[in-house]
């Protein structure tokens, strides 16, 4: 009897193990909780079998009695089912429950996948900064944390990066973590005598929210983005600032954008670690209405109407529409928006683009402290071209290396090159002695940049760049008071050199295209020289008429 019970118990145990595991295997290794429950039930049945065996062993063996004629009686009631049979039935029931649970879990997974699957026509979020034309050279390449809102046709993405930058100046003490070239202290100035110093900042860390929704008119994309660069340089009390806030509706053939976004004039040209607006780079973000259309294969056209801002320099200083003149209103005036256009052709990493702008510069002295009374306008225009050339087109051994060159020319386009002109568009002889009929003269500016991006390994790269820029001023600007803000703002020539080494431990190159991954660690060297119009005659005691800066910095960028 004990051997029979043990054999039946073993049979029940094997049935308990085989059936549920088979069901779970069919469900794809579904649920650890179900396995734990079956093991618990198996352990209870084993203990029950042991109790039955012990009870059977303790029962006394019956003594045979002499046979005698039995008295006829009613048939006995069938005995209850053996304990082993009950165990087998319990095991079969548990296995059936496990199979049902696995089926329910499988159905739930299928329903969730169907609910969150990409919708045809709703593209996944584009990687930030696929092209230098629309994002800074420092760009997060990851798609961010993206998910579809269940039950809707909307996709949401959270993206950004945390960034730490530290720097040391070998030359003049330049106390800003984002130094545009025109702020370099002059040789012979007090800042030059003090020498360089060291600082660190994390205020340019960035985050944004991007949504995409499929509509009857195409894909509606919205974006809100900001960082903490709105405060004073080198402060830990960083101030949040809005970078972008826009909505765009349409498809690849035609779409319209409204809101604050990168200007069509923007061009990063090459990859840097510093957070400044460098020489010949443009990182203007402003309110605009933009239309984008596909003109042909690989050819995109864009036009925009963008917010204007007149900036001019007179003997009294540098003025914008919001600058106060002696406690009153500013003569700088805006009356019409800026008009910009851009053509871009791309194929297999080769890129050509041409961009241009038209605008109006205006001053009105009525109602201000400026004298004499005058109302003047001046047309402004500019154009620029850029080529990005993948070196593998010459020889496959170059890998993903690339060469970038950019050149521009314009009159009155200073605000789009804030790095070299304090954003100024024009100068005027308003306020100079003996001037009774003031003139407004746009500043002619031109320059060029050449940069090379070298990949030493898929995770290690360098960028080397040289930039040159020149601004031409009317001769009466030499009459500005030496050492005054007006005279020091007139920079005639600039030269700038960049060299960096960036390690992206999770970077990879696929089909000639580089993706940096989520982490960048790098060092960078920056040399800048500026020469003031008029030299030491214009700077006076403020310095020797030129400035030279040597800065080395390191940065760590962690994206999400």
UniProtKB/TrEMBL annotation:
Q: Where is the composition biased (Low complexity)?
A: 54-74, 84-95
Q: Where is this region: Disordered?
A: 53-95
Q: What is the lineage of its organism?
A: Bacteria, Pseudomonadati, Pseudomonadota, Alphaproteobacteria, Acetobacterales
Ordered alphabetically, the record's keywords are: Signal
Cite the InterPro entries for this sequence.
DcaP (IPR045748)
Write the signal peptide boundaries.
1-25
Q: Which Pfam families match?
A: DcaP
UniProt-listed SUPFAM superfamilies: Porins
PROSITE patterns, per database record? PROKAR_LIPOPROTEIN
Name of this chain's protein: Porin
């Amino acid at each position: 009897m004990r051997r029979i019970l043990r054999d039946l118990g073993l049979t029940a145990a094997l049935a308990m193990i085989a059936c549920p595991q088979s069901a779970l295997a069919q469900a794809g290794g579904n649920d650890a909780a179900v396995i734990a429950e079956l093991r618990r039930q198996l352990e209870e049945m084993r203990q029950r079998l042991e109790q039955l065996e012990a009870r059977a062993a303790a029962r006394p063996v019956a003594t045979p009695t002499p046979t005698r004629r039995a008295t006829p009686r009613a048939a006995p009631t069938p005995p209850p089912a053996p304990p082993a049979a009950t165990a087998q039935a319990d095991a079969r029931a548990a296995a059936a429950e496990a199979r049902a649970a696995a089926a329910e879990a499988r159905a739930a997974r299928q329903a969730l996948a169907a609910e969150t699957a990409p919708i045809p026509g709703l593209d996944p979020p584009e990687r930030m900064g696929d092209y230098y034309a629309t994002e800074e050279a420092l760009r997060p390449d990851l798609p961010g944390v993206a998910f579809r809102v269940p039950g809707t046709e909307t996709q949401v993405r959270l993206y950004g990066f945390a960034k730490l930058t530290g720097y040391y100046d070998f030359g003049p003490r330049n106390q800003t973590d984002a130094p545009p070239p025109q702020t370099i202290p002059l040789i012979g100035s007090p800042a030059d005598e003090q020498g360089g110093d060291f600082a660190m900042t994390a205020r340019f860390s960035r985050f944004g929210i991007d949504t995409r929704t499929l509509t009857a008119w195409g894909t509606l994309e919205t974006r809100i983005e900001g960082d903490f660069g709105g405060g004073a340089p080198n402060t830990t009390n960083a101030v949040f600032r809005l970078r972008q806030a826009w909505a765009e509706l349409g498809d690849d053939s035609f779409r319209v954008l409204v809101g604050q976004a990168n200007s069509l004039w923007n061009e990063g040209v090459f990859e840097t670690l510093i957070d400044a607006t460098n020489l010949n780079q443009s990182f203007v973000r402003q309110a605009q209405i933009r239309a984008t259309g596909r003109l042909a294969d690989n050819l995109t056209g864009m036009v925009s109407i963008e917010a204007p801002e007149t900036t001019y320099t007179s003997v009294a200083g540098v003025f914008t529409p919001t600058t106060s003149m002696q406690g009153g209103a500013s003569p700088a005036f805006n009356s019409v928006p800026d008009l910009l256009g851009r053509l871009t052709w791309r194929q297999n990493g080769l890129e050509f683009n041409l961009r241009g702008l038209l605008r109006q510069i205006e001053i009105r002295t009525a109602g201000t402290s400026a004298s004499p009374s005058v109302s003047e306008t001046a047309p402004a225009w500019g154009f620029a071209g850029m080529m990005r050339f993948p070196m593998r087109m010459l020889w496959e051994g170059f890998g993903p290396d690339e060469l970038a060159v950019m050149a521009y020319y314009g009159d009155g386009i200073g605000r789009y090159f804030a790095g070299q002109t304090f954003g100024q568009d024009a100068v005027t002889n308003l306020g100079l002695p003996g001037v009774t009929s003031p003139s407004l003269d746009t500043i002619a500016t031109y320059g060029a940049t050449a940069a090379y991006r070298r990949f030493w390994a898929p995770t290690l790269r360098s960028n080397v760049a040289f930039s040159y820029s020149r601004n031409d001023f009317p001769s009466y600007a030499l009459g500005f008071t030496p050492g005054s803000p007006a005279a020091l703002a007139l920079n005639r020539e600039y030269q700038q050199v960049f060299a960096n080494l960036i390690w992206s431990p999770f970077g990879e190159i696929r089909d000639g295209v580089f993706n940096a991954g989520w982490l960048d660690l790098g060092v960078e060297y920056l040399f800048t020289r500026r020469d003031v119009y008029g030299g030491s005659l214009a700077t006076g005691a403020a310095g020797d008429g030129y400035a030279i800066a040597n800065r080395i910095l390191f940065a760590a960028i962690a994206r999400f």
